[in-house]
Amino acid sequence: MGRKAPPSASRAERLPSAHGAMSRFAYARVKSAGIALDPLLSETGVTRQQLDDPKSPISVRNQIKFLNLAAVALQDDLLGFHLADIPDLRAVGLLYYLLASSETLLDGLQRVARYSTIVNEGIIQTCAHGSELSMSFRYHGVGRHLDRHQIECWTAGLVRICRELTGLRLVPSRVRLIHHRSEDQGAELATFFGKSIEFGASVDDIAFPRRTAEARILGADPYLNKLLLSHCEQALSHRKRAGTFRASVENAIAPLLPHGKASLEGVARQLAVSPRTLARRLSEEGTSFSLVLEGLRNDLAARYLADKEFGIAQIAWLLGYEEPSTFSRAFKRWTGKTPRDMRVPRKPGDTLRKSSSRRGEISKS
Fold this sequence. Notes:
Helix content: 40-55%
Number of helices: 18
Strand order of the largest sheet: 3-4-7-5-6
Order of helices and strands: HEHHHEHHHHEEHEHEEHHHHHHHH
Strand content: 5-15%
Number of strands: 7
Distance between the termini: 54 Å
């Protein structure tokens, strides 16, 4: 007998979901601006019913798409960052109350890290306390390369909550984000986070000086904290790890591209599997390493070409091509057009491939 094929529904069930607060914040802004929602919703798979119901989960992949398209429609390239600037941080929900009821900042961040997947299965957080207090963010089951707004909302919101709850003007000693930003956009983020911010990094993380770990949470409620921890442990015990192996491969490939090291063997080492196992697991999902690599390059090329600050040679380097001509030939094979043909002004309602990113800056670090 041949190998049993996985149920057709299982793939959708494995996709990580989110509570959807960010999508709802963006939804409110789009509605307030009087922008037609149906074109955005039809491209993302998000429904009005999901956005109107605070208890309805939203696919993390669809949330990323919706935020990208909402940013284009609102002409706000820093939409995710701006979404974190809400009048009442309690609207964030569970993670706010986990921090607010903890005794110290370290206690709160450790709990946020443990239970964050309850509200967003696509981001796995790790809290470390040694020479500094740090939070790292790793995407699971969804491609990190398509996102800027979700991670910026997440990190900016976390810093805002920490500042409000401690009453301190906490300034991170380090912020690193995988995606690229232009110098102008980076300046606005640096004003908020501090000057030690790096774009185009190999990881997403944020760190504070070691002493901030013992900062007291104002108005901490140990009784509420105990109730929340009991609720979260129960919720966590019922969760199954969502995601596809393809997404893990994409997230391993992306930082290797500019260095020309995105080979099957190199990615397999990153994922701690053999090349044969990597190829087999991708085959089980109906794809191959070469198809994943080409699809990722195609997606990233569309993002970088939407930014006039990227030269063709820079884009070729970011995608792992030694020569711009090689990139141009590949791009024409994918789209039937040259990279220069694709450099047209964007309009609200353009497809995600034309709008998933606008500006970026090659890291000089």
